[in-house]
Write a structure and sequence with these properties.
Distance between the termini: 30 Å
Radius of gyration: 20 Å
Number of domains: 2
Shape: extended
Helix content: 40-55%
């Protein structure tokens, strides 16, 4: 349903737009797939061009997919959609406490809080409530 809404296609016209919807869904699935997806595909017994194409699409989609790129993309979309009003967002990541994350152009717009700094769920809840 989201694909039809995003592509502005009626559900009832899906026979005419089946390839467009399928391609959109495939890109979303590849984008959200785990990092071992190409490995699983490469272990397939048949050496199919479709498998090679999927692996190539995976690497094309993921080549610029870093945490800082995702943050910058989200901030840029917020700016475009809201005429310079940034929506508060919470992003969970599995980085270690000592790791530094670079936010290329938006250092002043991002507040980074690591879960390891909290002693209780209450502290975390308080910070989240203050954020919003």
């Amino acid at each position: 349903m989201n694909a039809f809404d995003y592509l502005k296609i009626s559900q009832y016209d899906n026979d005419n737009q089946k390839d467009v919807v399928t391609q959109y869904c495939k890109q979303k699935l590849i984008r959200t797939s785990s990092f071992d997806f190409p490995l699983h595909l490469s272990c397939k017994i048949n050496d199919d061009d479709n498998i090679r194409n999927l692996i190539e699409q995976y690497y094309n989609i993921h080549k610029n997919l870093s945490f800082s790129d995702l943050i910058n993309q989200a901030l840029n979309q917020s700016i475009i959609l809201n005429q310079s009003i940034i929506l508060n967002q919470i992003v969970y990541t599995y980085t270690q406490i000592y790791e530094k994350i670079e936010y290329k152009n938006n250092n002043n717009l991002v507040v980074e809080v690591k879960l390891g700094h909290f002693k209780s769920g209450f502290e975390l809840r308080r910070v989240i409530e203050e954020h919003y």
